[in-house]
Amino acid sequence: MNALDISRWQFGITTVYHFILVPLTIGLAPMVAVMQTVWTVTGNEQWYRATKFFGKLFLINFALGVATGIVQEFQFGMNWSEYSRFVGDVFGAPLALEGLVAFFLESTFLGLWIFGWARLPKKVHLACIWLVAIGVNASAYFIIAANSWMQHPVGARFNPETKRAELVDFWAVMTNNTTLAAFPHTLAGSFLTAGTFVAAIGIWWMVRNSRRAKRTADVELASTLRTDARTLYRPVTRFALWVIVVSGVALAITGDVQGKLMFEQQPMKMASAESLCHTETGAAFSVLTIGTHNNCDSITRVIELPNLTSFLATNTFDATLPGVAEMQQFYNETVGPGDYRPNLFVTYWAFRAMIGWAGGSALLALAGLWFTRKGRVPESKWLGRLAIAAIPTPFLANSSGWVFTEMGRQPWMVVPNPTGDPNIHLTVQQGVSNNSSATVLVSLITFTLVYGALAVIWFSLIRRYAVEGPLAHDAHPPTDDSARDGDGDGADDDASEKLSFAY
Amino acid sequence: MSLPEIWFVVVAVLFAGYFLLEGFDFGVGMLMPFVGRRRGETAQEGDVRRRVLINTIGPVWDGNEVWVITGAGAMFAAFPGWYATMFSGLYLPLLLILVGLIARVVAIEWRGKIDDPRWRRWCDVGIGLGSWLPAFLWGVAFANLMRGLPINADHQFVGGIGDLVHPYALLGGVATTILFVTHGAVFLSLKTADEMRVASMTVARRLAVPTAVVVLAFGLWNQAEHGTRVTAIALAVAAVAAVVTAIATTARREVLAFVATSLTIAAVAVIIFGTLWGALIPSTIDPAFDLTIAGATSSHYTLTVISWASIVTVPVVVGYQAWTYWVFRQRISTRDIPSSIGLSMRAPSDAAAENRS
Questions:
Q1: Which residues in chain B (69-108) have CB-CB distances under 8 A to chain A?
Q2: Which of A217, A227, A250, A498 is most buried, by CB atoms within 10 Å?
């Protein structure tokens, strides 16, 4: 393998790792904020317990999300220095803004939230988690704006003297129609992930409590278990299930919008996603094809829905869509000789995996809403199992979606915009750093091993804390007295007061 | 000053802020085995001491770390050429810094999650790794930039790892390391109470003179080879601040000592960026290949956009970070540390869970 292949693998591996953790953070921060808000407004301590319980899982996840995120900020320069030179004038601005606006906000206020339970007034403390929630979502906006510029460069011109893309309209970059479609789609995916995570854990606990209540001879214990199932897990689960429903609808709508944009802006990506090898009028949607796939000649279409792809692309059933072969010829004529086809196998299956895995959350939402209807508390063992099985599906769908969108733009790093400056485009060969393959291999192995080990620990910790459930010492919020104590003089005098939280 | 020159100063300020704030974070991490341990104490007591150390930076270290992420982002936006050459040229030092930072983030956040001595020992290793590696390697990295890198006409790094390891760079690494340890010890004396306050100040006092010697030795070497008037003034300031540190730590004047170590770090940042001012990265192959501010800068429009963004956001960021320090201003002593609320490594069996309630 040469430095280019290793660099591509490295960026792919580190980014996929990062994006296992990111959607949970993006979706869970606002959900925890809502839980804390309900507690603050109603005074219902069950919502306080839910806040603390899911807050802990959120923090375990946040740590590794940050750790894997730092790498990304450096990696552009380390492995893709020629790319960084070419696009830095445009690409750097959203990155710098992400740091200034979002990263400072989330990291500072998360510290205040973690340590401020007994030190800040209740409402100020609640505001902290909301600012964290805004911060994580804002950072998503900036980084997606940066990524969307690579997919559909706007607001820039090619400067022949400096031989690079230069920003001419920042507003155009921030309101790129690709960004405006990708951001809500990513957000919806993140909320689907967090909703599924919370709902599944809630259902599992509801079932577990109900079954334990039945088994035990201890009347008092049975009553506590039943009360928790009804007044803690059920409301939290119903809230999360509705988050799934709303984000699921949003995913479908934004996905459709994004698909139409892609047919316009990146026809090669969509042609390969559909195994559309040759230009067709009234193109069918392929449900199943067989063959080696990375080769148009070997593909046999098995099942297809007539005219559907044309409809998805343009809202008309008989639109003419360009095929992979024709797009290849087009690029050869306009940009120069080369292979401009993405990996057909990966794009085809990643696209289908993305949609397919999202079905896991849909199934959980249907089952969950049905079995908790009209105040019911489910005790079916298989519902508990279904809940656990559903947890990984949105993560898989997120990864598949990003693999599709990123590998679908290959071999481009900056995809030529059909209606933009024709000189702004860059292939991965042109973007990679001038590193030896040994150097890049060392970092690939290092990151893979470190991330691998940390992922195992992350999973064990999340599992351990989810199985433990809400902790006894988090049953009641700190009283107002302790809040005032901590906020008072701040001198050594209140040293006898234990910290409400310490690492 | 032209807009690119102003942005050079902005990048310098962001890195100076990083060294200032993460300097004591790294220092606290590096002092874990020293201030965090005392002869003749039980394992339990030692753990409480180490938890005091971590908790002095607990609410703020993550926000402090963002300074470098924003610094790198600002570098990317304002000087893409500088970002590209520096990050691809200093590949292996940066890789190790990243490994350290990754280890530190998870070790700090996950340490208290499991109540088990072996778990905590591994986390302490992670915190140590994540403090020693960056503290040393940032010094090595910037010393290399100051001395220059083998970069060709396209500003691509064409050297190997051997080009990065030489006495000047190593001395730079030692200088930042010892400076951050002292800064951390002084910070601890400000943030802890009772016996740990005394112990931290004792460490700071012992380190004050060696720190002054190492930092000034590096500063003088740099002055002799790459010095300008600005770096000479900064070096004088660093010298005075180092002497003040020694006096203040002997007199147990904590605030004065902290101001002095902060001033030393600021002066070192001025020395670093004052040296880089001439050529962002000098080429050791041919001075004609030097990466200059004019050659690496973004377009005027981009600089205008990020200038407006910074003018709006930076005061707000500085404001709320300062407020965080104010909220958590109280000293921490071993008595303030609550007992561990971590879970056991393995879940108790279901039957046991049934009985527990």
A1: 69-70, 72-74, 76-81, 83-88, 91-92, 94-95, 98-99, 101-103, 105-106, 108
A2: A250
